[in-house]
């Protein structure tokens, strides 16, 4: 995703349907809905100039105005990867903000000097220093009056600019940690968090949308996993983990063959992720795969939770649990992303893994990722697949 120059902002059309819609929402104090409208536009066209201009206009609203509105924007919205082209980052400490200068200067041919700017910038290469880094570089005076005005000044550190003075406007620099991908070309994203506890869908989306140009609406594309100890310690083990899970997803029919060759690996450290180290593996669509919109294609993928049950010699259907911890036996409970048409086949693969038990087996499916919930009941069941079955049956209170 490239950054935009001031000349492009100035050529932006003055009034569009998106601007009218967002303007009305901002008048009502609905910042969250306004930003949703913009992000959906950018999801369809990540470099849409009008969408980026309007996004910056929304984010340029005063902090007090945003926080006191009836719908303040969420942190996930504000740091969406789709907004990377309009982000400004300090070249020294990587502090980030959305500079209003692009909006202010876009409609003004005259030059003016903002007071107390949050940062200043080289007008040739966009080397940028934030206010805090400028203070750190300036020697402290112990004799100057406390009310004496301080001159904010600095020079470009790039040798090609020959010490050019840093000034305003401060324009977008972009973000180096965002992976540029066409969101419409993403087949799926493997999300692994370091540790045995699988992240929730909301946890995963908070990280994915920060580093990939996707939205919460794209949750069905996610394949969420936890990581066993010592499987994310270095580059080699992370690659081995990703390759293993991708092969499993191929066998389940959730990804087209050769997904490893179409993937990228992104290791997100605990700082940016917020709640732990993550491994993100976006997979591009296979050129030969039929797009879901085609008339003969399978139904669109969704997220489902599966639960394997067995029928003991005496008693009713039961789950398999570790006798020491009480946790579900590995491979009998989890979430997957697949089309509804693929669920019967996936159920047979799960059932086959436990054929050595010599007991009748079945798989229950629940809509959505329910792996973090307690007390799932039969009323929540989306459908049941029995051994050898080719379709899902609805749950009934008949014989078990």
The proportion of residues forming helix, as a percent range, comes to 25-40%
Ranges where pLDDT stays below 50 over 5 or more residues in a row are 290-299
How much of the polypeptide forms β-strand, as a percent range?
15-25%
Biggest beta-sheet profile: 5 strands, antiparallel
Kindly, what is the distance between the CA atoms of the first and last residues, rounded to a whole number of angstroms? Answer: 55 Å
Structural class: alpha+beta
Mean pLDDT: 81
- Mass-distribution shape: elongated
Question: Can you offer a commentary on this structure?
Answer:
- By secondary structure, the chain is of the alpha+beta class.
- 26% of the residues lie in helices and 17% in strands.
- β1 (88-89) and β2 form a beta hairpin.
Quick tags:
alpha+beta, five-stranded antiparallel β-sheet
Helix and strand arrangement:
Blueprint: H1 6-10, H2 17-27, H3 31-44, H4 49-59, H5 63-67, H6 75-78, E1 88-89, E2 96-97, H7 101-106, E3 119-121, E4 128-130, H8 131-137, E5 186-194, H9 201-211, E6 222-227, H10 235-251, E7 266-268, H11 270-273, E8 278-284, E9 301-311, E10 318-319, E11 333-339, H12 343-353, E12 360-367, E13 381-386
Parallel strand pairs: 5-6
Antiparallel strand pairs: 1-2, 3-4, 5-8, 7-8, 9-10, 9-11, 9-12, 12-13
Helix pairs in contact: 2-3, 2-4, 3-4
